[in-house]
Amino acid sequence: MEFPISSTVAAFLAPVVAVAIAIAVHEVVWRVLQRLFRPTNAPVLSRVVMAGRTATRFAMVFAALLASVPALPLPPTAMEMLARAVGIGFIGALGWAIAAKVGAVFDAYLDRSGPNERGFEWRRRRTKLTVFRRLALLTVLGITAGFMLMTVPLVRTIGISLFASAGVAGIVLGIAARPTIANLIAGIQIALTQPIRIGDSVVVEGEWGNVDEITSTYVVVRIWDDRRLIVPLGYFLEKPFQNWTRDAPNILGSVMLYVDYSVPIPALRDHLRKVLDSTSLWDKRVWNLQVTDLKEHTMELRALVSAPDAGTAWDLRCLVREEMIGFLTERYPGSLPRERLDLARSASSAAGERRAPMEVRVGTDGRA
Fold first, then answer.
1. Which of 53, 76, 313, 318 has the most CB atoms around it within 10 Å of its CB?
2. 182 in a structural domain
3. Does the pLDDT at position 233 exceed 70?
C-alpha cells in the first residue's frame, strides 16, 4: 500500500533535507581538507584552511535554507521576511568564517618563531601583525555589517539618499567619526614606524611600565605595581615619552652615594667590582665609579652599572646600593657625611686662647 506525501508536507521537508545534506557535505569536505592539508606539511595553510569550522558549517546551512525557502507555501509577506532573515544569517556566517581565516593567517605568521626566538625581532613583528590583524578584522566586520544592513529596504533607501548627498553626508560623518579615524590612522603609523612595540619598557606620564597590549584605539601599559595605564594611540605620535628598549633592551643604571671627603675611592671601586662579579644581574658590559660633584660637606659618587633589561637594572641598582652602604658602615664608618663647627669664645673671656675645632656628626634625624 502506498502513502503519497502531500505537496505541502514535501515543501516543508525540503529545507530539512537541504540542511541535512549541507551538513553532511560540509563534514565530508572538511575531512578531505584535513587529509590534504596536514600541519606537518603546510602549517600555515593548514591553520588557515582549518580555521572557522563552525562558521563555515553555519554558512552552508544558511545557503541550503536560501535555496529551499522559496519552495515553502507561505504568504508573500512571511516569505519575504523569512528570506531576509536567512539572508542576514548567511551574510553573518560568511563574514564570521572570513574573519576566522583572516585571524588565522596573522596568528600563523605570529607563532612561527619558537620560544627561544622571541626577542627584539619577534616583538617588532608581533606589534606590526597585531595592529594589522585588528584593522583587517574591523574591515571584515564593517563590510559584513554593511551587507547585512543593505538587505533591509529602509536602510537601503537611506543609504542611496546618503550617496546622493555624499558631500554633506561625508562632512557630517567625517566630523562624527574623527576620533575613530584618527586612532585607526595612528594604529597604521605605529605599525609602520613602531615608536613602541609590545613588551617595550616605556615611561608615560611619569609612570614606568611595559607595553602589554596594542589595540585599534588604545595602548595598555602595565605599570611596575601591576596597575594598567590606558593610553590613546594618538598619544604616542603627538607627545614625547621615554622608550627604554627602542633599539635594544640593554640599559644603564646609576647609584648615587654621598660620602665624606676622607673616604678612599679606590677601595670603594674595588668593592663595587666584587659586588658585580658576584651577581648574575650584571651583564658585564659597563661599570665604573666616579666622583661626579663636590659639595660643601660631601662629595657625590656615581656608580654606573649595566643590565640586560630595565627590570634587572632596577634589582641591580638596589643590590649595589645595599652592598655599598654596608661596606661603608663596616669598613669606613667615619666616611659618613659630617658637619664641622668651629666654636670661638668671646675676645674678653678667651683672649689669647685657641680652641680646637669640634666635629659634630649629623644623624639621620638632622640633630647634632
1. 313
2. yes
3. yes
